[in-house]
Amino acid sequence: MPFTMSIAEREAFLAGPHVGVLAVRDDDQSAGSLLAVPIWYSYRPGGILTVLTGRDSAKAHRIRAAGRFALCAQQEEPPCRYVSVEGPVVAIEDGIDPAERAAMAHRYMPPDTARAYLAATTEQLTADIAIRMRPERWRSADFAAVAARFDGRSTRTGTEHPEPGRG
Questions:
Q1: What's the DSSP call for residue 40?
Q2: I need a labelling partner for 9 at 20 to 30 A (CA). Which of 48, 100, 144, 145 fits?
Q3: Measured between alpha carbons, how far is 135 from 48 in angstroms, rounded to an integer?
Q4: Strands 34-39 vs 128-133: parallel, antiparallel or unpaired
Q5: Do 160 and 4 meet the contact criterion of CB atoms below 8 Å apart?
Q6: pLDDT tens digits, 2-21
């Protein structure tokens, strides 16, 4: 019973408004320290994943040093699903485009809350950076087939179509 999502399924899932968990190694990789924190992100199928964070945050320092990071997005309610991506940083942009920041806020908040949040935190336009990552390694699982098998519903069909460098 396959759990892995197809390329289209995993990209569509990652594009959804999930809170991601960003993971990156410590600057001193010999210590084996790993930072894993929840974060807002944006992604469009086939594109680049973007996170916005403080210029001097632990995330920013570690990502600069490592040159790459991972992010996992999940659906907690049954049937559980997740997509995890890892890849190289392709750009770190100082300062935030107001339209991009507004789109991110509206992705995660109701309209009135997003407008109030944006008005109250305008300093983030100059205090934050945009970090862009090209997803290189993908991992995914969709447990809908397992749930369907045990609760009597029909299972989804389909097969995984491996894509070089994206498996």
A1: -
A2: 100
A3: 7
A4: unpaired
A5: yes
A6: 688 999 999 999 999 999 99
